[in-house]
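Escalation from tier 1.

The customer reports that the assembly of three entities below gives different structure tokens on two consecutive runs. Tier 1 could not reproduce it. I'm attaching the input and our single run for tier 2 to review.
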Amino acid sequence: MNPFEFVEPESLEEAVSLLTKEPGRAEVIAGGTDLLSELKDGLRRPERLVSLMGVEELGGVRWERDRVWLGASLTLGSLAEDERLSGEYPILAQAARSIATTQIRSVATLGGNLCQRPRCWYYRHPGFPCYKKGGVHCYGVNGYNRNLAILGHGASVMVHPSDMAPALIAMDARLESFGPRGRRTMALEDFFAGPNEQQMQEHVLERGEIVTGVFVSKPPSDARSVFLKAQDRTGEDFALASVAASASVSDGAVTRARMILGGVAPVPYRSQKAEEYLVGQAVKEVESSKAAELALCHARPLRHNGFKVILTKNLVRHAIETILKQ
Amino acid sequence: MRLTVNGRARRVDAAHHWTLLRLLRDVLALTGAKVGCDRGECGACTVAVDGQPVYACQMLAMQARGKEVVTVEGLASEEGLHPVQRAFLEEDAGQCGYCTPGFVMAAYALLLRNPSPTEGEIREALAGNLCRCNAYGRILEGVKAATGKMDSRPRPSRGQALRGNDGEGCG
Amino acid sequence: MARLSVVGRSVVRRGLEEKLTGEARYTADLKLPGMLHARVLLSPHPHAEVVSVDTSAAEAVPGVHAVFTPFDDEASGLFAGDMRVLDTRVRFVGDEVAAVAAETEEEADRAIELLGVEYRELPFETDAGKALRPDATDIHEGGNLWGGEPLVLERGDVEAGLREADMVLEETYVVASHSAAPLEPRAAVARWCEDRLTVWKTSRGVHQDRAHLSAALGVPEERIRVVGPHFGAGYGAKDESRCAMLAAVLARKAGRAVRLEYSRYQEFVAGRVRHGAVIELKVGLKRSGEITAIDNKTLMNTGAYLASGAGELRRAAQGGLYLYRCPNVRYEGRLAYTNSPVAGSYRGLGAPQGHFAVEALMDQSAKSLGIDPVKFRLMNHVGLEGQLGRRTSPRDLVVDTQPVEGGIPFSSNGLRECILRGAEAIGWGTAVEEAVEPHLKRGVGMATCIYRGGPGWESTARAVLQRDGKVDLHTGVVDVGQGSHTVLGQMAAEAFGCGYEEVRVVSGDSDVAPHSPITAGSTATFSAGLAVKEASEKLRNGLLDMASTYLERAKDGLDVSEGFIVAKGSGERLESVAVLASRMPGKFMDAEASVVPGSADYIVNSFAAHFALVEVDLLTGSVSVVRYVAAHDSGRIINPLAAVNQVEGGVSQTLGLTLSEELVTDGASGVTLNGSFLEHKCPTIGQYPEIETIFVETEDPIAPFGAKALGEPPSVPVAAAVINAVYNAVGVRFTEIPLTPDKVLEGLARKVEAA
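Tier 1 run:
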């Protein structure tokens, strides 16, 4: 690993100023579980790491009257084990629990999970100057693309690796950030940026801007949700595909639906067609396989990943059947 | 920087880019935590930081500033092996032994927060540790045997003895 | 079977306590005074000439003490058949190009980055089949087919056998290359004192390592000492590597001690992998269930160098040649050089690949004939008498443990009992309990195994009675993690007549250990065991001579038992060994034995039958093994708990080959893409099934205390047992492993289309 300076400011303002002082030379570190691998493999060579773990206001869970605020430096372990959160937002605990391993969850943070870089093998291998590292070529297009995108790909066929993102988007979460231009919030869905919009990052943050936390509104009393994740191995692995689904049902009909797919597109993929099909349907009329077909109607599999279309349809079907039974 | 290692306050020099694992192995001569992958993917370097199991290879030494670190050398006491170690010994929970310190520490951290885990909980807690000899059956039995036997009181540590270099005479 | 006092007991594994406390030292834990850190540069090209290496910038890095390139004098030494210490031709992405040693790791890293290597790229081929086409570029002189011709082994007339059959089934099976991925990456520490070299290394055989170092460096063996500290396992894969040679050369150039550790990625690509294989298999059957012919054409990918390829190619044959009673068998094996990571030995050495094909097709044969798979095995498995026919090899020659000819009986054969007891334990023939969720489908499957049963190379052991009454057992055999020192210590205690705690095992140092072969081929218990037993018996005999004089009693009325000289018959304790030892005329008493193991009359083989209950998730395509029964005939079990550990570990490890592990090469660049524990999917405790181990303890007249091989057999039948169970669950015959979710989902979709 190349030497660097490690600094740990105590306030957001200080952190932002450290990040903007020498543009391009400083990087944010929180838990560091993703970043350290990139540094060790020489994919990035910052001269300074600005740790966010000393900024107190980024930690913890804050309960408000009609929403909850989850701090960016909340660890995935705390997120998975928080009893009240598991009770009121089970989908978030399900997603957090499915991520990596106990040791990673002890230190990896919510903010880091949303900001993590691609897991594509070509991206992670120092030998390929790929598009997401600033190169011109996406090696996944014609290379070994079993784990890569089936939906929404452009200049890169990467998939977004976050499991928290689909679950949070299914709960209509909003992301809060703080940067040189102050504080702002946005729908978490709008936070992510595909390869045609952003090359060297997978989100819309400006230089020096930091994720501070996520707001999740209290779900209506008739809401139900589920997070499903398919992996090569249970435990440790990133998703081959995941589905976060939530819905409200009243008087025997679906009144609201969210269907977010993870691990299949460069950003968490929201399937509006499936949602539109579900909303207004009587529960007993819902054909889950029809919703699954609609969810994947834009799928364009690559040479080695046709199975992900089958897999994702299966997960969508199963997710709908599960939540309508709840 | 300052940190506590196996119950003892330490003041050490560490470069900012060093991992906690490098600090433990190269400076403090605590080589129980092993280098298996250096990417947080195998668990051979598992230690407890403030009671939480972490991969020492995937944490900067600076991130452990002011924290309490327990390594495998810190478990046994003057009274003998730690209950987890004793149970692993009796259940033959290891083969080549390279993963063993990591498994012991993961099991220790699990039992710290959950003294009577179910088999499912044991599997989940240890899924971040690889044993390439695949002695998983014995390791499961080892953790089960240690269940309920952990004494949470602090114990005098015998693992503090710092070992010198292994240099021998001209071979 | 006679009851013994130490053999057959689950004594505590030797060395486990220090492993549990973190005190056990492995090679990478060693630190010598003034030691430098080394780093190695791997080739980024799959096939190229190294035209030049500009070392000036690297040498100018402060702290750098040595740079080693293929153009140095020390580079040209040849070892392991076809490998140079460093070569001006690189043959795969990962081939070592150069190495440096510096004061710190950072300086060494920097120097590696600053090496200016000029390559002239050559055409390359990573696929074994394509590498054998006439227009492929030669990777080694003499072409890409190792040996220039296929290995052909036959008994009877396979063409006639196929003609005679009522039914011929044929199928092609594909096994992907994967890595043994020992948790400890290879490492070496080297130091020279004048002209004498000491190397501490990750070793499974200090004498073989010494021979390789001697050949590679041109230094006589007498001037090389190899020490094997605790060993973080290898499963066969840590041999035939440049690591120790590079450390030794750098240490000589720098005049300082040097430590070289491979990174995890380097271990994955520059370590040794299992041979990928394509197996075309044909079987001829009579309607009655009789097997008339087995025809096997196997192509294996040995990568850029031969390593253990020859043994691998041979052992892949044995299942087809010998597991079933069949007069007409033929094996044609081809081993191809390619520009891929080097394939070497890995637990089972070819047998897991070969057995996968044979046992999958036998399952299909049973189904096609309408015979239950267990019944079909019981009808056809090879019996104690061996294969039919006349022995053709000279009768005074030690029998090959992997014979082709008929007419030679086995020393023991518990295969039938393995099948029967395993079937009973898994509940064969009763309905499989269905899973709760409708998308989980369950099924059972089975497979059997034959494996060379222990006889290996000549082995020497020395037993020394010390004045404190303890026995030091000197053996060159390295405990690779499987517990051989525990088992050999038990044998020594049993043969000498003392408690297990009274035996110390001294090992792992080529200067002091008696010459021993590598720990390989499941031979340690058997081959080293025979030498240990004989040496310990000789020592007991020496002690009895002394006791006879001392006690003034006839020697044939005396025995040694549990640390005492006892009267034969009554068992009366006459004197303790400790007291006698303290009165020895010399400082110690010792005895040595060298044994060439094996038998001129019998084939010594181990056997097993495995049964799997699997669950296939129709939604995700993932296959999990719910319950597993492994029934083994490895003769007498020396240490039941350690043996169970060995079987459970072997089964679980091989579930990786079966369901998840594959080393993937990028076709366009030859780069190994997934050299990490995250992406090369080794089983975790999460996938570990409930495993029941059954030992069918046959009485073997040849083996020491009747103990046959156990190390590798547990890995051999796993793939077929699981894949056959998947068929039973979902009705699809999968022929390619690892059977990952993508293959399962696509297979299920094809089945729906076909219907």
